[in-house]
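Summary of Year 1 activities. Much of the first year was spent building the evaluation harness for sequence design. The harness presents a backbone, in tokenized form, and records the residue chosen at every position. We chose the following record to illustrate the format because it has been used consistently in internal testing since the harness was completed.
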């Protein structure tokens, strides 16, 4: 589904150049939940931004569904809009909107009528288990519930790939494990690929595969035991 080869990225501050990524390559399959794991400064957020087409200044090649990623900004914007979803550490929900409205918001930019939008939102709300909170605002929800809203919002357009940057960093361990399992199970059910950046090795147990990063290199690729329905 997603393939990247020999990705290199450098930052220059004053007279100092830092090589954030030093020729990383991997092939991620459709429906996989893959963790990018490593300490701060390992390059995982940099690689995540490149895979999400948020950073265009890099060397190397990326393919989605065996098609090379174009360099034109208009084409990149279209791919992000049609094929990608994003989940953030801080949820990024709109505080004055209800759960329903937050999830519906991305659909306002695509060609769906009101009934089609409602059907999509209701379907995904049930998948993330928030059907009893549909009219609540974000400040009326727990952290785990807010992240479920963010997951639903990322999935409501039915993207092929979801990029998640430290989605469990603000959650307690039990809630974080539940959220990770939810993403993996939704990926299985919907055929969606998740790439999840985390520094917490405990969360990687809920993923199908782990890419360990250190000093700009993928140092290890671990195929997890089949845990697709683990709690």
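For this record, the design step produced the sequence shown next.
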């Amino acid at each position: 589904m997603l393939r990247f080869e020999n990705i290199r990225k450098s930052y220059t501050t004053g007279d100092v150049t830092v090589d954030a990524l030093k020729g990383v390559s991997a092939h991620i399959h459709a429906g996989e939940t893959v963790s990018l794991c490593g300490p701060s400064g390992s390059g995982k957020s940099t690689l995540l931004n490149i895979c999400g087409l948020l950073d265009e200044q890099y060397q190397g090649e990326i393919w989605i569904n065996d098609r090379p990623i174009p360099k034109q900004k208009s084409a990149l914007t279209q791919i992000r809009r049609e094929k990608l979803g994003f989940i953030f550490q801080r949820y990024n929900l709109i505080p004055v909107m209800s759960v329903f409205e937050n999830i519906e918001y991305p659909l306002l930019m695509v060609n769906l009528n009101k009934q089609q939008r409602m059907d999509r939102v209701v379907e995904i709300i049930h998948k993330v288990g928030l059907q009893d909170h549909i009219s609540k605002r974000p400040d009326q929800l727990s952290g785990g519930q807010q992240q479920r809203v963010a997951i639903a919002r990322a999935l409501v357009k039915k993207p092929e790939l979801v990029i998640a940057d430290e989605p469990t960093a603000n959650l307690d361990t039990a809630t974080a494990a539940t959220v990770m399992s939810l993403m993996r199970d939704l990926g299985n059910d919907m055929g969606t690929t998740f790439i999840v950046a985390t520094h917490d090795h405990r969360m990687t147990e809920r993923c199908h595969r782990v890419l360990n990063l250190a000093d700009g290199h993928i140092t290890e690729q671990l195929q997890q035991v089949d845990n697709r329905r683990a709690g």
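The first helix runs from residue 44 to 51. Quantitative recovery figures across the full test set are reported in Table 2.
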